[in-house]
Design goal:
By secondary structure, the protein is mainly α. The protein has a domain at 2-51. 32% of the residues lie in helices and 4% in strands. The chain is built from 4 helices and 2 strands, in the order ααββαα. A two-stranded antiparallel sheet has the order 1-2.
């Protein structure tokens, strides 16, 4: 199986899935119900030939931008969330934390 893995460029899990799904024939040389798969080179080559595809050039370029459908202007309203919040709370938004002078403990204010 390591040779088939290298030949196909797949993981062991992918190869086992291909065998399980019947995509690649195998010879079971295992005993006592425990499978031991052997793959024939001719079966690997047949799988490669069967799966070999040719990419054909398309008549239409896939790089061309699709034309816009419908209107390009939005009919939805732009919402100013800061203004709505200020209106709901009845005040304007503060611009950061404001510092107020504090009176020192034990001293009357103004001195």
């Amino acid at each position: 199986m390591p040779a088939a893995i290298a030949e196909l460029g797949v993981s062991e899990r992918q190869l086992r899935d291909l065998i399980r799904d019947g995509k690649i024939p195998f010879v079971n040389v295992g005993l006592a119900g425990r499978p031991a798969y052997r793959l024939r080179p001719v079966d690997i080559e047949a799988f490669i030939i069967q799966r070999t595809g040719i990419c054909q050039k398309s008549e239409v370029s896939t790089n061309a931008a699709a034309p816009a459908i419908g209107s390009t202007t939005s009919k939805s309203e732009v919402v100013d969330f800061a203004a709505r919040r200020a209106q709901r709370t009845g005040r304007t938004q503060k611009s950061g934390r404001q510092k107020f002078p504090r009176a020192k403990p034990g001293r009357p204010e103004g001195r």
